[in-house]
Structure prediction request, 121 residues.
Amino acid sequence: MSNTDQFDRALTTITQERGDVYGHPSDDFARAAAIKIAVDSCPDPRLRHVLDMIAVKMARLTAMPDHLDSWIDIAGYARTACMVLDVQDSQQDPSYGHVGGDAVVSAPETVRDTRPPSRYT
Prediction:
């Protein structure tokens, strides 16, 4: 079986399994998008990403609130946020001076958001 055939088989399986748990992707994505509107105001792109991931899990939990794996994932994302904050606090941020994505990190404590304003605000 080719890699493409394996991929297509896995995709069909995973789409059905996720749909059974979280509902139709359109509904799940709409819930996540609504939550992410609030997350967009976070000025730190790294922490905003953590919040985005938590938002996805929150949206899924609204459809299946007893899905333990999503609660565990949220806890893991919260811990990674603390790890990011620890690096910032220690002033040993490895991304110091890094330019990429939608932000310019000019100092460990200073992150300038360069994204255009959200169309949802």
About this structure: Residues 68-90 form the longest helix (23 residues).
